[in-house]
């Protein structure tokens, strides 16, 4: 009896917690963590209420439509701006860059127009010629304030009151806003093939003056063009992409089925391959070490030559190759010793992997449960995103004084556009206007919008973690039903997946919500730390950056640990039906009593599943590459004409990897569940007639226990 086996028994040699009536997942359960369940339901109801309030106060049109200086939406139906869908800036030179134009308010009058200007013109020139060139006036005044048609008004007063822009330049719409129509001619920046323009105030300026106001627009427009081509590729290749993902699904299923027969072979091929490669490395290091013997300078030490930027210099030293050889020998010896002392545990891990493949074969419906988890998470993401948008767009139009004079004391103060002309502001600051600034408010609701956004993010994390927990508990209950079936598959209950799902929802919503709550709190703290790190990136305080880095690292480790504990706690909940804390404690100590087996099983499982993902994604990717590049003669005529063949290719590869990950996550949950059941089986039973093992015959043979009962399948 080895040390691990001794841990399964008490001081008097009796198995721990033996219950002769235990036959797998308990069906006579009671509700667990009721308080947390009530809180969870109340939070969901509050979350729904928050969404309703946000939908009442929010207006997504503020995101969809640009807003003019009067707080009116451009292109909104049943308004005067219905046919005016584009925002025009009177003086774009006052705008710093496109980010300011999109997210903030540019300090110039903004007007909704039906189309952007397509020519150069100034108000001075148009006014001077309006009598004999009325067409020019009629074209120019469509970019003036609505209703303005007084060309006799002095230029100074028009520009002061901003009735019309001082100039218009050829523009094109981008994000429903007019930006200069930049182009490059012989390496020179131009607008409509011109390098200069009149600013309407008596100066001739170079178009490079517009560069800062529209910085990066050409690159973004080019990106939009590429985006349109990518969309076209998706539109004509989606059918073949779905076929590729279907092939990935079939390959994933095939790999899981074949693991029953190939898990051991794949693992040992890899292990002996690593041993062989390291052995070759040792031989090569010795060959280099012996080959450099007698060569001048090769007997120098690393200390003698000091630090060199050309690392090839170190490869000319015998000492370097001797150090490499010693390191590789140490690694080789460690691997061989681990294989010698852990061989039995490795065999158990491989046997559990094969058993997992057999379990999935009997409960095939579990492979498609990730679709339910995906749908639940998709619903959570959609609700969170919509609520966040409505919260962000909650508020009433806020107007501020915009003055041409820099010394105006009323500049940037809030104002009321309906009473603005009756105040003294226009007298003290000639040309000042009351224009729309942003959406906000002074009510209690508007003051706490940031808190509501945090609550929205927190409940979103809680619900997502709950959906994942529900999936893990459901799958664990189904696979535990398989393990604790004495005669497989005859004793496996009918519809084990649906029964497990019902038990999890009916009895353990509180426990699952409790585990998800703990994880959501840690994740929210990590989000806040990332936000603070982003805000403090420019700071020169080294201690602050160091502290944030340490906190981020600690909470990352804590999240990983909690995910591990929660996963195994949900397995124990699925089996015994106890509350979260008790299940987490029992799972933790059970794993600690089998810590070596846990480590070996975890690494063997990770390796085989990673190999499976690479094989599926790589195999389907190679097939897709040959197809979309017309290298398969049989299907050459079926290949769609694409702008970029890598668009569907990358989609197929990434999609195949995600499909394989979905299937293999079920397999990983199956193996983890079977492992905990296996450990419980060893602690509860001894293989006798009175207390028979529930494990498979292969696991029993590896342990070298007493002969299984003849009833055992």
From TrEMBL:
<keyword id="KW-0472">Membrane</keyword>
<keyword id="KW-0813">Transport</keyword>
<feature type="transmembrane region" description="Helical">
    <location>
        <begin position="459"/>
        <end position="486"/>
    </location>
</feature>
<feature type="transmembrane region" description="Helical">
    <location>
        <begin position="31"/>
        <end position="56"/>
    </location>
</feature>
<dbReference type="GO" id="GO:0015297">
    <property type="term" value="F:antiporter activity"/>
</dbReference>
<feature type="transmembrane region" description="Helical">
    <location>
        <begin position="607"/>
        <end position="628"/>
    </location>
</feature>
<protein>
    <recommendedName>
        <fullName>Choline transporter-like protein</fullName>
    </recommendedName>
</protein>
<feature type="transmembrane region" description="Helical">
    <location>
        <begin position="649"/>
        <end position="669"/>
    </location>
</feature>
<keyword id="KW-0812">Transmembrane</keyword>
<keyword id="KW-0325">Glycoprotein</keyword>
<dbReference type="Pfam" id="PF04515">
    <property type="entry name" value="Choline_transpo"/>
</dbReference>
<feature type="transmembrane region" description="Helical">
    <location>
        <begin position="265"/>
        <end position="283"/>
    </location>
</feature>
<comment type="similarity">
    <text>Belongs to the CTL (choline transporter-like) family.</text>
</comment>
<feature type="transmembrane region" description="Helical">
    <location>
        <begin position="321"/>
        <end position="342"/>
    </location>
</feature>
<comment type="function">
    <text>Choline/H+ antiporter.</text>
</comment>
<feature type="transmembrane region" description="Helical">
    <location>
        <begin position="238"/>
        <end position="258"/>
    </location>
</feature>
<dbReference type="InterPro" id="IPR007603">
    <property type="entry name" value="Choline_transptr-like"/>
</dbReference>
<keyword id="KW-1133">Transmembrane helix</keyword>
<dbReference type="GO" id="GO:0005886">
    <property type="term" value="C:plasma membrane"/>
</dbReference>
<feature type="transmembrane region" description="Helical">
    <location>
        <begin position="362"/>
        <end position="386"/>
    </location>
</feature>
<comment type="function">
    <text>Choline transporter.</text>
</comment>
<keyword id="KW-1003">Cell membrane</keyword>
<feature type="transmembrane region" description="Helical">
    <location>
        <begin position="507"/>
        <end position="529"/>
    </location>
</feature>
<keyword id="KW-0050">Antiport</keyword>
